[in-house]
Amino acid sequence: MKRLISFASFLILCGVFAAAQVPTGMITGKVTDDQGAPLPGVSVVAESEKLVGQATAITDATGTYRLFSLPSGSYTVKFTLKGFKTVTRKDILVFVEQTITLNVTMEPSPLEEEITVIGQRPLIDVKSTTKGSTMTREVFMQLPRNRSFDGLLSTVPGVQYESNQGGLSVDGASGTENMWYVDGTNITSVHYGLRTQSVVMEQVEEVKVTASGYTAEFGGSMGGVVSVIARSGGNAFHGEIYGYYNNNRLWMQGKARDYLRLNPYWTSPLGPEDIEYVNEDDLYYEGGKKRDDYQRFEGVFNLSGYFIKDRLWFFASFNPIYSRTVADRWFTTDPVDLTKAKYPGDTQKDPRQGRPLYEFYSKYYYYYWQAKLTGQPIKGMRVSASAVSNFYYYRGGIPSLAGTSSKDFPYRKDWSNTLMSGKEPGFSYPNLSANLTLDWTLSNNFLLSLRSGLQRTNTTNQQLVMPGTYYYFNRSNTAYAEIPAELKHSSGWTNWPTSVYEYKKWIYGRASVNLDLSYYINLAGEHAWKFGIQYIRPFEDVDASASHPLVNLYWGTYYTWPTGEKIQGKYGYYTTRGDFKSPYGNLWTIHSDNWAIYLHDSWTIGRKFTLNLGVRTESEYVPAMSKDTSLPGYKAKPIEFGFDQKLAPRLGAVYDVFGDSSLKIFASFGVYYDVMKLYMAEGAYGGFKWWTSYYTLDTYEWTKIAASGKIDDRASQEAGGKYFGSRNWRTGSFEETEPNMKPVAQSELSFGAEKKITEDISFSARFVYKHLIRTIEDIGYLDAEFNEQYFIGNPGEGKARPVSQGGIFADEFWPAPKPKREYYGLNLALEKRFSNNWQAGINYTWSRLFGNYGGLSSSDESGRNSPNVERYWDLWFERYDIHGRPLDGILPSDRTHYIKGYGSYAFPFGLTIGIAAYGRSGLPRTTNLSFNDMQIFPDGYFDTGKRLPFTFWADMYVEYNLRIANKYTVNVNATFSNITNTKTIQGYYDRYNYTMLRLTDAELLAQKTNYKDWKTLVDQKITVDKLDPRYGMWTSRFGTWSWRLGARFSF
Description:
Layout: H1 2-14, E1 25-33, E2 43-47, E3 55-58, E4 64-70, E5 73-80, E6 86-94, E7 99-101, E8 104-106, E9 114-118, E10 131-136, H2 137-140, E11 159-162, E12 167-170, E13 179-182, E14 185-186, E15 204-212, E16 225-230, E17 238-247, E18 259-262, E19 275-278, H3 280-284, E20 293-308, E21 312-329, E22 358-375, E23 381-395, E24 426-429, E25 431-443, E26 446-457, E27 470-473, E28 505-522, E29 526-545, E30 550-555, E31 559-560, E32 566-567, E33 572-577, E34 585-591, E35 594-605, E36 609-622, E37 639-641, E38 647-656, E39 663-673, H4 679-684, E40 688-689, E41 691-697, H5 714-717, E42 723-728, E43 745-756, E44 761-774, E45 777-782, E46 788-793, E47 821-835, E48 838-851, E49 857-858, E50 864-865, E51 889-890, E52 897-906, E53 911-920, E54 929-931, E55 934-936, E56 951-964, E57 968-977, E58 985-988, H6 1001-1005, H7 1014-1021, E59 1034-1037, E60 1042-1050
Parallel strand pairs: 1-7, 1-8, 6-9, 13-16, 27-30
Antiparallel strand pairs: 1-4, 2-3, 2-5, 5-6, 10-15, 11-12, 13-14, 15-16, 17-20, 17-60, 18-19, 20-21, 21-22, 22-23, 23-24, 23-25, 25-26, 26-28, 28-29, 29-34, 29-35, 30-33, 31-32, 33-41, 34-40, 35-36, 36-37, 36-38, 38-39, 39-43, 41-42, 43-44, 44-47, 45-46, 47-48, 48-51, 48-52, 49-50, 52-53, 53-56, ...
């Protein structure tokens, strides 16, 4: 009864939160006698510094035991049976989501003898086809790293940060296709698909990246799954104080690299004399001696221990950070003072030309914390609760280095040259995730797991808020003699120099509950059955709308209403937004109720072969962001996928070649569906509200219009003339959405091998092929009447096809091609785990990425993160070259070779040195053309046949530890980035023209160009500034070196 009451209590608590990931491992195996016969009734006890209490099991009739829900760490496992020698196995390493097979032979003995085995530890999980890499605290704290847990992910084979893929790329996928977890809580943004939280390494126990072969319990990722396990307490009290400091002085950061730019003060005609290689140190900072004053201070305060020994542990950490920049800036609108100029008249060497300098600042305050409780309330039950907060805020603003910023902007509170004094830029960013897990071992073959959590971010406390009605002059009124001078302004004048929106709240989050049941049974071999059900509730609560009306004044002109009527008063007309009719800006409160169900069977036949069979299915929808049911084609769920549409099979096979976990070969196949991000709904389904009301302008006293500043004050808004009507400029795309939409999907095939070479050294090889099945995008097209339209659907499928094929796109135009992204990769890795004072790893990846689609983050647009509404299909010709040939080639983010290595050595006198080194192929270069309001690739991808140069660089970490009285440790450390001082070129300017080339649809369809003469066409069609003089020139180099100083005191 007590067990049931305990379980019910935890179930109620878990219902508040959301999560869906397994943050523990497992040890299993068989115990036999010296004749090979199974031994039932053997007591198995596992202990670890990372485990609250003990994990216990009794072998069944087949000699099988299972130790469930083990946190990552090193274990000692003891096997006891009366009449047999006790066997103790030490240093058994368990990692997150890993199943370790530990088979034991016990010898008969009438005496109480004990055999202790150190070593012979299994390094390989012979039950799983999942492939990735795990880095423990023991590993990453001795290597160069940045200040977040993702700092060393690029050492993993097939994983690297790519700016033109929008973040972390795993096996060719883009940055918005990954899933991120902290202690089992999904911290992936529901809006953009990116990571929402940072956890410093001092708070982390283990980081795991899974690249392929996921089982059915994982969904929503076409890239990788990154899992972070936070530190826990223990049966002893420990404390740590860390401090870090860095600045941008020349002794901590090398001289800035040259880069290519257009002189910001150039005038037409554009020529070679208007481009220049500059670096900011020489141009603005006297060779770097007078840089902006940047400093960053960080502390980490950790305390761990117990409330009740072997029952309830705690870990708490506080991570405050303060960074600030103080900078001198100038403005081109100030008069030149050549008497103070260093190079009078030479704006390339001396852009400021003696203009006065003003001091500005920006200050960032971070108050990060993390807390975790782990406990064992009753035998067989393990619980944990954790929370991570990433709250921060900033104040102040700094104008541009080139002096081209507006002088009227309120950069600081005491800035007098502004329309608004006493205010400065700033926002606050609350950010919290919470987690609660329960694992209950009900028997030797039955485990119940409940995982829950919450992830929530917000943007609030906006400092610069528009104080009243906004006025903007679309046309000048200076020609009217009767208007007083104080009411006259030229075109473009406004009374408010910054954003008209007020971020009252911008809340994104996710809540869900995940229940797993694992059951083991012998039926022609051992079956590990897992059934799981997940409830996921993404939610958003946003109000970033204007708090006061916006008035636009069109002096001396008229507006033509759709019916043909002209709106014009004595002085013209005016419009209002954010008025009595509707708010203006982002405003919505939504949620989804999504579900996932999965079944998995890990079937071990004999002692060597394991077959993994699974299926996952999901139900999800994208909600409308408007409650206005009068919108054309309105649906409360404009995109909805049922369980039958997201059936994801998983199949894997593993063979333990020698039956001793020393060599396995594996293969897997799976289908993976993306979880829809909500960014698309913001513009497509009513998130952004925009009604415009139209009035005649009958008085020159424009300040009386909306003078009250109240959104709902219609009388005040009509003070300037007669109201004519209102138009909705954001009716949504409900009618332009594919009714038979299919979800974004990818298939994966992988196979490989892992070999334990010695107790600490292992080798692995993996080949993977990933094939994009389909995507969802907004597609620009011309309908049968040649009207330009946008349609949300699957490119090349359903209605997103020509009319002759059953679609709605005009047959006269090139059809929207299906998306294509093919990835082939071969990973080879050799790793030596930390022992005998050193560790090392080296890996190599060969890969090929090709097709016409970079992913949910656009590699065509330098990594733009706008999932499902990128520009891939925005115009009917965009997935073609200028000759009408479909794009299909090496994608902009392809790298053929990637070599990575790391290692560290701890000297006996307290010094530790760690290195991480990288070498990679350059990205392909593709000619692009500014064409019809976008860029195209006139001769297709990789037409140059050239790549950026191969780049090699290395980082280093050095620390010295001093032990005091065998109780305290004082540590001084330094992290060096780019110790090789690599300067390799990282970019070329491959856009051919400066002024945009424009062709009519008829010209493009007639294919008046051919393979050789599009450059001639540019020459004929463009008359001024036709060629960009930067074309073909290198633009940037690898960043300069820098280092960070650190210290630690621990007890």
